[in-house]
Specification:
16% strand, two-stranded antiparallel ribbon, alpha/beta, 201 residues, 2 domains
Length: 201
């Protein structure tokens, strides 16, 4: 009986030691993977204008009747493309609004959409606290920037030069456009040497 107890204790200790070694190996592997996995920014579509191209001038009308012109001589503008029927667009609105509040001195935020009725967009703007003077309806703008999926964002500097654009699904994607513009690269993927086509597929 005593021998069986000793043997069972030895076996249990061997199992515990083996489990500790496995946990250590997995922890190390997680650390290696964490170092290798780079942050992925907004996905830039292959079609549409290239980063560095000058846009405009493009004349737009807001839903309250004001005229906004995109192109040389404008204020640096962050354009957020959305749709009232897009749940991801809605979930990112607080992020875009907080960005607008934080950067209001140097960057103006423009909300853009098309489709649906003007009344639908007015109601959507009112329900979500979007200023009517910053909300435009324009198919031309979406085509000019190569918007093919939503939510989408673009950053245009005060010379009318496209600095960054891409599909944005979360806060990190939105911030990556600003970071890419600051680093003067078309996207974080370009900076990190990541193949964007693999990420889009």
């Amino acid at each position: 009986m005593t021998t069986a107890l000793v043997v069972s204790n030895i076996v249990l200790w061997l199992i515990v030691i083996a489990l500790l070694l496995i946990v250590f190996a997995l922890t190390r592997q997680i650390g290696v993977l964490h170092e290798r996995v780079a942050p992925v920014g907004a996905l830039m579509p292959m079609n549409g204008p290239k980063i560095g191209e000058t846009l405009g001038p493009i004349r737009l009308q807001t839903i309250n009747g004001e005229t906004v012109t995109l192109g040389p001589g404008m204020t640096q503008t962050f354009i957020y493309f959305l749709s009232p029927g897009c749940p991801v667009c809605k979930s990112l609105l607080p992020v875009v609004r907080s960005f607008a509040d934080h950067e209001q001195a140097s960057v103006q935020v423009l909300y853009a959409s098309d489709g649906d009725t003007e009344a639908t967009h007015r109601r959507y703007a009112e329900d979500h606290g979007i200023p009517a003077s910053r909300y435009v309806l324009s198919t031309e703008l979406g085509m000019a920037l190569g918007v093919n999926k939503l939510p989408f964002a673009a950053l245009i500097d005060n010379d009318g030069v496209l600095k960054a654009r891409g599909l944005v699904n979360n806060r990190e994607h939105v911030e990556s456009l600003l970071t890419a513009a600051e680093m003067d690269v078309s996207s974080l993927q370009e900076y990190l040497g990541i193949d964007e086509e693999k990420h889009e597929s």
